[in-house]
Write a structure and sequence with these properties.
Length: 207
C-alpha cells in the first residue's frame, strides 16, 4: 500500500486524542490504569482524574517513582500506562526502565511526549534526542515513533497486548495527517529489520 502524506491539519491534536482513547481503553478493560508525572494538563487528562479516581493517578514530579508504582500495579494485575515529557520518560528513568520493567519482566506502556525539538520554548532541558538510542539497548523493548494521530491511536490500542516495555515517542500537537485512512494495523505482522538485537526495530505493515 502507498502511504500518503496529506499535509492537512488534524481534526484533533494528539493531546485530545489521547484522553479519548484512554477512556475507551478504560471501558474495554478494567485493568488499564494511567499514571502521570504532574503533566495532566499537557495531555488533557484532568477530567479523567476526576472521573476515574481509582484508575488515574498523579504521582507528582517523581518520574522514577512513577515507574516503580507502575511495576507494582502490574504485579497487582493491572495494565499501566504512564506519561511524562520524553526526556523525563526515558533519560531520567532509564535505570528503572531497564531494571524494574525489562529485567523484572513487567509490561508497562510509556508515553514520552514532546520528543525531539517539539518542546520548543521549554528549552534544552525538555528536548530529548537520545531516547531511541538508549531504549534500543533495553532487552525486548518496543519503540513506537508515531507519525500522526491515526497511528498513535491505533498503535496505542494494539500495544496493550504486547509484552515488556512499550515506549511511545510523540508530539502533543502539530502533527500533520500522514495516513488518511487506516483500516487494519496488526502488530503481529511486524517485520524485524535488525534480527538479533536486544530491542526491536520494526517495519509495521499498514493495510
Amino acid at each position: 500500500m502507498s502511504i500518503i502524506f496529506t499535509g492537512s491539519s488534524p481534526n484533533k491534536e494528539i493531546s485530545q486524542l489521547f484522553s479519548e482513547t484512554l477512556e475507551g481503553l478504560f471501558a474495554e478493560d478494567n485493568r488499564v490504569v494511567y499514571l502521570d508525572a504532574d503533566l495532566m494538563g499537557s495531555l488533557k487528562t484532568q477530567d479523567l482524574w476526576d472521573k476515574y479516581p481509582n484508575r488515574v493517578f498523579n504521582t507528582g514530579i517523581q518520574e522514577a517513582n512513577m515507574v516503580g508504582v507502575a511495576c507494582g500495579l502490574f504485579l497487582g494485575g493491572f495494565k499501566p500506562i504512564i506519561h511524562s515529557f520524553s526526556p523525563f520518560a526515558s533519560r531520567r528513568v532509564f535505570d528503572q526502565l531497564m531494571v524494574s520493567v525489562s529485567y523484572a519482566h513487567k509490561d508497562v506502556t510509556v508515553i514520552g511526549s514532546d520528543a525531539g525539538i517539539c518542546a520548543t520554548f521549554n528549552g534544552g532541558t525538555h528536548m530529548c534526542f537520545e531516547d531511541v538510542a538508549m531504549l534500543r539497548s533495553v532487552p525486548e523493548a518496543t519503540i513506537i515513533d508515531v507519525c500522526d494521530g491515526v497511528s498513535f491511536v491505533e498503535l496505542l490500542k494494539k500495544a496493550q497486548n504486547l509484552k515488556g516495555l512499550k515506549y511511545f515517542r510523540t508530539a502533543r500537537r502539530g502533527l500533520l495527517m500522514f495516513i488518511p485512512i487506516l483500516k487494519i494495523l496488526n502488530l503481529a505482522r511486524e517485520k524485524e529489520l535488525l534480527p538479533g538485537q536486544m530491542s526491536r526495530l520494526l517495519l509495521l505493515e499498514f493495510s
